[in-house]
Amino acid sequence: MKTLIVYAHPEPKSLNGSLKDLAVSTLEAAGHTVQVSDLYAMNWKAVVDATDFGADASSRLNVALASGRAFDAGTLTADVHAEQQKLLWADTIIFQFPMWWYTMPAILKGWVDRVFSYHFAYGVGEHSDTKYGERFGEGTLVGRKALLSVTAGGPESHYAARGINGPIDDLLFPIQHGILYYPGIEVLPPFVLYGTDRMTDENYPAVAEAWKQRLLTLESTEPVAYRRQNFGDYEIPSLHLKEGLEPAGRTGFGLHTRG
Amino acid sequence: MKTLIVYAHPEPKSLNGSLKDLAVSTLEAAGHTVQVSDLYAMNWKAVVDATDFGADASSRLNVALASGRAFDAGTLTADVHAEQQKLLWADTIIFQFPMWWYTMPAILKGWVDRVFSYHFAYGVGEHSDTKYGERFGEGTLVGRKALLSVTAGGPESHYAARGINGPIDDLLFPIQHGILYYPGIEVLPPFVLYGTDRMTDENYPAVAEAWKQRLLTLESTEPVAYRRQNFGDYEIPSLHLKEGLEPAGRTGFGLHTRG
Lengths: 259, 259
Hints:
alpha/beta, 6 helices, six-stranded parallel sheet, homodimer, Rossmann fold, globular
């Protein structure tokens, strides 16, 4: 495998830092090639603005159109271009981050906002009354797999089906389906550690062992069975899921997973 | 009303910029007081790091504990302190932003990550085997209301109950429930504009009129009926919703809304 690890935590000695280090050593020992985008160490620019596109202050900035023009012309900034090249190089992408306020830290959201440019990650393919792009199962990054490895401060029960935070699969859906599956990446079931606020050093060996097992079985792990947009499951042009395709009682985000 | 508008768009002449300007003029004309946090104009620092807490590089940074210590000692940075004071001053908070990858732009996530510090927005109240904090209906910001005003590029049907993006209420749940209701803010139904990728200047007068009507009826608008954590609806300590409280067939995020 050629694995890109996108890592977002400010503290190298954190649990997230340890899990990132363990991923590198485990995958390399198994003969895989690894690149790491350590966003804090890179001092990653998190905020999209006019300087990304060399726009002068007098013109009206449309982020989508400006990023698409820059992508087409090969004039995206060097930092963004390098990340796009890493994504094209990789066959597997691991995101290692803490859940902050039920989603990714700002620095990682800023990586998405800037790297997933128009014409690279969205605005790909025909957009008309009969087709709304090549996305959700098609797109620039098709053929790749991704895995979220996340830490959550609260206990697992809070993220269960009836838990107060909402089910973890639903909390991660906007990332897994909306960001990763959108440009064609298949998504493996996430590796989630709960209760990390109260975790001690004594808990780490078991955690590390579980993480190693996930890493060493990535190639045989089945992705989440999200439905492809353009292969018959959705009405055109509404992109409503056709009636009757889902198991009885299934609603919400769960509709967009088969079976 | 004392209204804080937190605004996150890089282009003053954008639709988001116009909606922000219209909110200011409409509310002021109606006799209300308005403050605006224009995150791009403020060059808001989006990324939490050790410099926020004057931590020296040799110590291991725990963001929660460091932000709580700084909050308690009154040593949070001036930019973060000012935003916390605005939140305490306001009775109504409007967030104006574009949906980028199904959630808020990085600069706004970074406002949350830094301003919603430990002991201010979380880690408030007793945390024991019989209570898990004062949150979801209690907390520092109780008595305030918030409204998301968001623009979405895609058409409304994509965000419907069976739409491919998932229902808009579910996409906004991690923000509305997980970020805003968590420290006690009541959440008004969002103002969502769809299809903004194809919107023209001709569409603007109707949009502006609809937005003005929402703004002028904020005080009589009923908040979303999220369930309070500590008033009998949840099992302790699992924080599972008690069986039988929900309408038949309700699942997922919807469980945490009454009625």
